[in-house]
Amino acid sequence: MQTYYIESLDQEGRGIARRDGKTIFIEGALPGETVTANIFRKKPSYEIGHVECVIVKSSQRVTPQCPHFGRCGGCSMQHLEARAQVAAKQRVLEDALWHIGKVLPEQMLPPIHGPAWGYRHRARLTVRHVVKKGGVLVGFHEKRSSFVADMTSCAVLPPRISALLPTLRELVGALSIRDRLPQIEVAIGDVVDVLVLRVLDSPSVEDRAQLITYAQRHNVHLYLQPRGPETAQPFWPEVPADLYYTLPEFGVKLPFRPTEFTQVNHQINRVLVRSVLHLLDPHPKERVADMFCGMGNFTLAIAACGASVLGVEGSAALLQRAGENAAVNGLTGRIDYRAMDLFRIDADGFVGLGRFDRMLIDPPRDGAVDLVKSLDANAPARIVYVSCNPATLARDAEILVHRHGYAFSAAGVVNMFPHTAHVESIACFDRQ
């Protein structure tokens, strides 16, 4: 039986060991542990396995709270104490910045973290009728599998939503379209909970009656989605749900539709916006750019501080929603929006946007390499970069520091997704 000493964690939360020139990634192992492992994938330069037996246990190992941990693919780090998870994510960020970008911040910001359980306000649950399992399953996929985990609860969903999982299994199992309902999307606002049922066939009259009874009994709004996300429509009640979240510190309310992208963790999002605005430090009469602005999560808060904001986004549909949200908050006069593909912007395109005093960049996982390359001598004095991928942040930070001469003033992690290996972060760059 081979044993492995775990040196560190990788970006997916797996333990890293080394043997005979190979890197061994071991799911469920923690730094400082000695373990045996079941290796299920072998490549010339690395192997992947999962823990079989922990011989020497880390002092930071805890008992997972969720009974489905290890089988469900939704969480990967419940076996690691919550504060240690945050520390591990900070190490991932620091390692990426140095090894990929050859940059280090002048200051590491205190990590942003909050409640570790019941935080998830968005979820996409898979639904499958499995005769061998005795009926309908509703939940996340199993690890490394397209199978649906046999779940009756979920500790990262709010308790009232977790409690619905068994009832949703019963509901779908009683419908005539149980084999034609592959997904239920959860969208939670400040005052209402919405379930979006992906339906490949129209519900029968009897199905509709059961759905209405369910919605009334459990105080949820039901939407039906026959095709793409844009086809989701209210079913019961028959009017759109009053879905929104708030940023009380800025007096901002952001309405959203149940299939639109919003941050999963509303509580941490409020702290994130506050922290980003503190770093960005917008002043009245300044002109600020919000790149990849989406529906206005940061744009509205910047405008509420008195600055003039240009929100730039590639999706015309998102820009329309952003404009509607600006109107709801009485901020239309301080915000302009422009549609532009920021993944293809060049120096001429950036100059055409005009001069900015400060700029916020909040890209998807691919980062903002073309945008940061496009900056010229008239680039903003301060850039705050919100990242969901340490590798692309590190790549873009290298360009800002080594090509454009920015000082890398600060960086820190944001634990937006506790118990997962996902690393959200903030970085601040200043013209020297």
What does this structure look like?
- The chain is of the alpha/beta class and 432 residues long.
- The chain has three domains: 1-61, OB fold (Dihydrolipoamide Acetyltransferase, E2P) (Beta Barrel), CATH 2.40.50; 91-115 and 265-431, Vaccinia Virus protein VP39 (Rossmann fold); 122-236, OB fold (Dihydrolipoamide Acetyltransferase, E2P), CATH 2.40.50.1070.
- The protein is built from ten helices and 22 strands.
- It has helices spanning 82-99, 159-162, 164-173, 205-218, 266-280, 299-304, 316-328, 347-351, 369-374, 390-403, and strands spanning 3-5, 8-9, 15-19, 22-27, 34-42, 46-56, 107-108, 122-130, 135-139, 183-188, 193-198, 221-225, 233-236, 244-247, 252-255, 287-291, 308-313, 335-339, 358-361, 382-387, 406-414, 424-431.
- The chain has an eight-stranded mixed sheet with strand order 7-21-22-20-19-16-17-18, with helices on both faces. It has a six-stranded mixed sheet with strand order 1-5-6-4-3-2, with no helix packed on it.
- α1 crosses α10 (390-403).
- The N and C termini lie far apart (57 Å).
- The mean pLDDT is 96.
Strand residue percentage: 25-35%
Strand order of the largest sheet: 7-21-22-20-19-16-17-18
Broad shape: flat
* Terminal CA distance: 57 Å
Report the CATH superfamily of the largest domain.
Answer: Vaccinia Virus protein VP39
Residue-averaged pLDDT = 96
* CATH architectural grouping of the largest domain: 3-Layer(aba) Sandwich
Query: What is the share of helical residues?
Result: 10-25%
Give the tally of β-strands.
22
CATH topology-level name of the largest domain: Rossmann fold
**What structural category do the secondary elements indicate?**
alpha/beta
* Count of discrete domains: 3
Radius of gyration: 23 Å
CATH top level of the largest domain is Alpha Beta
Which stretches are poorly predicted, pLDDT < 50 over at least 5 residues? none
Largest sheet composition: 8 strands, mixed
Number of helices: 10
